[in-house]
């Protein structure tokens, strides 16, 4: 969540979960901090004499992070990605571009950098450029990535048509383009294994899920009827739930279990090695999923009105899948995730508030387990569902959640790399063994 333009929290510039949602990192006006989720605590904080960090991306729980300068006085240029080794307490690599970096994604084998109209995919160990993807105007730096170690999939806004999404399936050696919405894309999310993609548009009323390999529409989920800004989408590890946060102050959780057959019958898919395209109609009607609330039989006056309308004329609104559970009363800009493989949901807001909830057994509101503040000077528990549960949970996780460790599988040599080609944002031209700043 990029907060460089936000006025809600003067200290906070960026906040993001790591790949397995066991930690989250915050970029601030004078450095960065990393927090553990279970138990909730600040793991460490790095303070710079001058300059802020506007983007930060962790690599699981290891000592390597990717950072970009931000705020009124950036620590590093906003067009430069710095690879920070916290064990050495210094930067050990860098990538320089001619335009500002809008987003970063890390895997153990890849670094992905998002610019306004282009995405760069680099090999992690030597930062060599492997692939470039042209995108439609992407000021939010939208990108989604799978984290399965054996399957690499990324999704970005398409390059020519508003509302389209380009999906690159590196493991399968093919790509697919889908026409996901009729207006601009506002959020993207991929399942852990990269098999499903979730999309939303700037209207913020409908969320769609897709099969990434075939480009077929799987589900159409309704957040609400009024326009909203979608802040984040997230699948749980098992791809049985999908969460959605927005500016309406409510986080919606949709059930994805059962009846998940494709609802597109006339998709034209020619995805193959190196080329592909599939188009799905924008008005498909899905089969309701188990647990999600539907509007097929509305109570009260709405139900009476619905019964008077011929079935063929009933708006799609009445047949959409609605959320299984909700988290209400979230203030400020926020992002959400599922904690590891558990049934816990974590919400972070730009006000510096950490909220942990549990999925209910029956449809309804999610019980809040705890609320904490992660802004400087405030790290105490505000509310707790059960002191005994919290104590047991802390005892069971004290040994399982250690501080950052040196990651032998994601080592990187000390290098300095710059994009110096004549063409704008072209591949890296040279590498050297000079020490980075």
Task: Describe the structure in your own words.
The chain is 5% helix and 40% strand. The protein has 437 residues and is mainly beta. The protein folds into two domains: 1-134 and 379-437, Lipocalin (Beta Barrel); 135-323, Lipocalin. The strands form eight sheets. The protein has a six-stranded mixed β-sheet with strand order 5-6-7-8-33-34, with no helix packed on it. It has a five-stranded mixed β-sheet with strand order 21-22-23-26-30, with no helix packed on it. Strand 18 and strand 19 (206-211) form a beta hairpin. The two termini are 26 Å apart. Residues 260-291, 293-299, 377-404 and 406-437 have low confidence and may be disordered.
Task: Characterize this entry briefly.
The chain has helices at 300-308, 387-397; strands spanning 12-17, 23-28, 31-36, 41-47, 52-58, 64-70, 80-85, 90-96, 103-106, 110-114, 118-123, 129-134, 144-145, 153-157, 164-169, 174-179, 185-190, 196-201, 206-211, 217-222, 230-235, 241-246, 251-255, 293-294, 321-322, 325-327, 334-338, 344-349, 353-358, 364-365, 368-373, 381-384, 416-418, 430-432. It has 437 residues and is mainly β. It has two domains: 1-134 and 379-437, Lipocalin (Beta Barrel), CATH 2.40.128.630; 135-323, Lipocalin.
């Amino acid at each position: 969540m990029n907060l460089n333009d936000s006025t809600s929290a003067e200290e906070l510039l960026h906040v993001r979960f790591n790949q397995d949602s066991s930690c989250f990192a915050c970029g601030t006006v004078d450095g960065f901090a990393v927090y553990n989720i279970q138990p909730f605590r600040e793991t460490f904080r790095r303070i710079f004499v001058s300059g802020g960090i506007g983007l930060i991306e962790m690599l699981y729980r290891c000592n390597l992070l990717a950072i970009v300068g931000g705020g009124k006085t950036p620590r590093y240029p906003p067009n430069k990605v710095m690879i920070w080794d916290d064990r050495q307490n210094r930067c050990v690599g860098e990538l320089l571009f001619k335009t500002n970096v809008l987003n970063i994604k890390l895997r153990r084998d890849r670094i992905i950098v998002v610019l306004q109209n282009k995405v760069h995919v680099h090999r992690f160990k030597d930062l060599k450029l492997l692939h470039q993807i042209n995108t439609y105007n992407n000021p939010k730096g939208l990108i989604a990535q799978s984290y399965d170690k054996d399957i690499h999939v990324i999704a970005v806004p398409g390059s020519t048509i508003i509302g389209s999404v380009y999906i690159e399936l590196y493991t399968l050696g093919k790509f697919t383009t889908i026409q996901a919405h009729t207006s601009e894309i506002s959020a993207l999310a991929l399942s852990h294994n990269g098999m499903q993609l979730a999309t939303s548009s700037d209207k913020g009323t409908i969320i769609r899920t897709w099969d990434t390999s075939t480009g077929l529409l799987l589900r159409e989920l309704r957040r609400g009827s009024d326009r909203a800004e979608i802040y984040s989408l997230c699948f749980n590890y098992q791809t049985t739930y999908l969460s959605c946060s927005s500016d309406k102050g409510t986080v919606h959780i949709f059930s994805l279990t059962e009846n998940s057959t494709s609802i597109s019958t006339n998709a034209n898919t020619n995805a193959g090695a190196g080329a592909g395209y599939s188009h799905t109609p924008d008005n498909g009607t899905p089969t309701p999923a188990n647990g999600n609330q539907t509007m097929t039989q509305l109570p009260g006056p709405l139900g009476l009105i619905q019964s008077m309308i011929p079935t063929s004329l009933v708006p799609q609104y009445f047949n959409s899948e609605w959320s299984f559970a909700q988290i209400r009363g979230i203030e400020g800009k926020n992002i959400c995730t599922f904690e590891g493989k558990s049934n816990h949901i974590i919400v972070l807001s730009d006000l510096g508030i950490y909220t942990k909830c549990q999925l209910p057994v029956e449809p309804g509101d999610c019980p809040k387990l705890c609320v904490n503040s992660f802004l400087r000077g405030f790290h105490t528990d505000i509310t707790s569902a059960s002191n005994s549960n919290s104590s047991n949970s802390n005892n069971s996780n004290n040994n399982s959640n250690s501080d950052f460790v040196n990651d032998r599988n994601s080592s990187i040599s000390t290098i300095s790399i710059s994009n110096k080609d004549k063409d704008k944002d072209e591949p890296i031209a040279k590498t050297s063994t000079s020490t980075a700043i």
